[in-house]
Amino acid sequence: MHRFLTLIGIIAALLVVSVVGAFYDEVVVLKAELEQWQKNNRADFSDIVSRLEDFSAPVFRDVSEDDWYNPYVSSLAEWNIVSGYKDTSGQPTGEFHPGDPVTVAEILKMSLEAAQVEKGGCVQQPANPYAQNHWAGIYVACAEEMGVRLMVPTQQTPLDRSARRAEVLSIIHDAFGIQVLPLFSNYSDTAGHPLEADIAYATVNGVVGGDTDRYGNPTGAFRPDDPVNRAEAAKIIYESLKRQAMNTNIASL
Which of 38, 108, 109, 195, by CA, is between 20 and 30 Å from 81? Predict the structure, then answer.
């Protein structure tokens, strides 16, 4: 009975937890509990574990339960990492626009929120001229202080342009303070790219993959300078968080 109550308590905690690191910590604990329960009672809970990460219901009216990106968008929305659009009066419209290209400002906000960067400590005025009177100004200020490569003041990166695939990875890596190893990518179109190491690192860690044909076979291309839509960005952020949580758990063993 005690073990059963413990399992119920863990499942309840999973449904309300808002910090991704804690979420994956609870997944690990629950898995261990379920495995022990199966061993002692000859029960099968493998299906429960396999569905733990898909518990989120749709949050936005333009993200349906059957959309491939729903688990990523809904989870990040629950964790206050992504938000939907607002109307001219500042009221939420209830829409996420998953097919819209993610902008530099948007992916910067998502990355710093995911990394739980304390924005109150960023006191300097951003040097990027595009950040003046911009809603993302505080994120740019933090990014400049942190040394986010795309936000180096001398680059003067426009904030409202579409973020490129390789840039998204570099922003995420810098937001989390990841020291990217000097790796070489195996894609046909990334050799010599300034962010090749970021592409290779994210690929090795299972965060991103290359293009596939209509049969699901790899084409060998990555398209590093193509834009990323908001749904794809949510998946990349989610997978990056998952990898960070897994690394934290491994380091604590």
Answer: 195
Whether the pLDDT of residue 104 is over 90: the answer is yes
DSSP string, 122-144: --SPP--GGGTT-TTHHHHHHHH
Handedness of CA 106, 110, 115, 117 (dihedral sign): positive
Largest pairwise CA distance in the chain: 64
Using left for φ > 0, alpha for ψ between -120 and 50, and beta otherwise, residue 116 falls in: left
Contacts of 148 (CB under 8 A, 6+ apart): 108, 171, 174, 175
Q: Pseudo-torsion of CA 222, 223, 227, 232, nearest 10°? A: -10
Residue 224 structure tokens = 């590093």
Tens digits of residue pLDDT in 127-180: 999 999 999 999 999 999 999 999 998 889 999 999 999 999 999 999 999 999
Which residue carries 């994210």 as its tokens?
202
* pLDDT over 90 (residue 51): no
What does the block give as tokens for 181?
A: 């190893």
| CA gap 223, 164 in Å, rounded | 9
Query: What's the number of CA atoms in the CB half-sphere (13 Å) around residue 213?
Result: 5
Rounded distance between C-alpha atoms, residue 171 and residue 196, angstroms: 14
Q: Where are the domains of the chain?
A: 1-55, 99-251
What's the whole-number mean pLDDT along residues 15-21? 45
- From 209, 138, 149, select the one nearest 177 (Cα to Cα): 149
Structure tokens at 68: 């491939």
